[in-house]
Write a structure and sequence with these properties.
Elements (H helix, E strand, L loop, with lengths): L1 E5 L9 H10 L4 E8 L5 H10 L3 H16 L5 E9 L5 H11 L3 E5 L2 E2 L2 E2 L10 H21 L4 E2 L17 H12 L4 E5 L14 H9 L5 E3 L5 H18 L7
Parallel strand pairs: 1-2, 2-3, 3-4, 4-7, 7-8, 8-9
Antiparallel strand pairs: 5-6
Length: 253
Amino acid sequence: MYDYHVHSNYSDGEFMGSMLRAAADAGLDGVGFADHCNVSEREGPRRAKKRLGFNLDATYERRRDAIADLRADYDIRVFDAVEMDYHPADEAEIRAFLAEADFGYAVGSVHELRGVNVHRDYFADLPESERAAAVDEYFDRVVALVESELFDVAAHLDIVERNPALRGHATADHYEAVAAALADSSTVPELNAGRVDREYGEFHPNAEFLSVLADHDVAVTVGSDAHTPNSLRERIPLLRDRLAAAGVDTATL
């Protein structure tokens, strides 16, 4: 079993050595460091990048050297990857950076909606109709991410469910649109455990969405989305159980 979506101190996770020890404890055959990266030239993302300090576009070569050193210490495969923020307006910058950096694989994520992070309380102040419209926009953007063919993996396909103000507005039509795009794409969605042990308490995608992917014969990768060693250790058994019950195929990158 490979966990293709783990974070390190090169974005908002803990030291790579600690994460690798946890991966070994969990019995993984491989783990991929997919740290956050944003290369947008738009003012909002540039400001957020400064505040968060996510600078993998400037540090990926140093991290790559560290990964090469760590591989000798662990009897598991270690992948050099990236999780890129996606917005259609940033496709040219993303394409150029990925061509230059040549990661083992790239994960694409939609984290921004209406100029703010999808987790923000901003959406709670919108009327119900506007919340539903925002979720429409989110899934349109996920489809655009898939159709861009920029990424090997599409992360947490229904991340809007993490926000209580947006939860419940996704529809079967949204799921069908994403699944149809994935069926025609080389991009693979992930089974993501990033909120299974927190307030949301579910996997991404949820059971209904995962069933739609299976109906379209879309395979999934596995991502704990772990930022700490303990969360990695705790989520891997949960992911194993979910995969066993899900009836979907898994893809190897």
